[in-house]
Amino acid sequence: MPLVSGKEILQAAQKGGYAVGAFNVNNMEIIQAIVEAAEEVKSPVLLQASQGAIKYAGLPYIVALVKTAAERASVPVALNLDHGTSFDQAMKCIRGGFTAVMIDGSHYPFDENVAIVKKVVEVAHAVGVSVEGELGRIGGTEDDISVDAKDAYMTTPEEAKKFADETGVDALAVAIGTAHGLYHGEPKLDFERLAAIRELVDCALVLHGASGVPDEAIKKAVKIGVQKINIDTEIRLAFTQGVRKVITEQPKEFDPRKLLGPSKEAMKEVVKTKMRLFGSTGKA
User: Number of structural domains, the chain?
Assistant: First the structure.
């Protein structure tokens, strides 16, 4: 089916009490793995491209590959810009065919964050594209964006409500103790803070940096009211482990298809496991 808006997928998740995985993509094999996994477990899914992915593969390639995968699928698929940092970048993605964009103004003061997100919302909503904002700063590194632990800070419920009301965003990424990249130790999520935010905010809530968060913590976050959960690092790990396994066991192999094929299967298993954890299986 054609790509759908992120809002359509997240509203259904909010109504149904489950979360949908947003999986980062960089090449054909990753896209195929995610969409094939969604087909097999009948789950809606968001594919998302970061600035690094767009720089690596090129915007036209990302859009063409995801559109092709979506059109061959029977489950709802949305294409989201992950951590867009400027109005211009968001507009390029919208013009290119993205059906959702995240504009990350979390590094700006509150009023500036509101202003840039509101500007994107006005244009995106006019053409049926949904928008995600971020409030609070999520630590760690994702492609070109790095936030030191000392600069990370939690989202406050009162500011979350004000931000959602003033911008009109469809989804809000909140900082409650997760981080991008690999964790050094077990992350501790602030569920009381999440519940307070959920009480005050009507739009979908997003959990970034969910790779490596214990399953029980994810389940609790979904139960409280998270609708979108971002996964990237665990897919990368599955991909590289699959390639390394083939190279180790068959050092003379030089066919890219035989190197990347096993990696695709490994990524599919990660994605299906996450979809079951999030409660989105059978919801397509």
Answer: 1
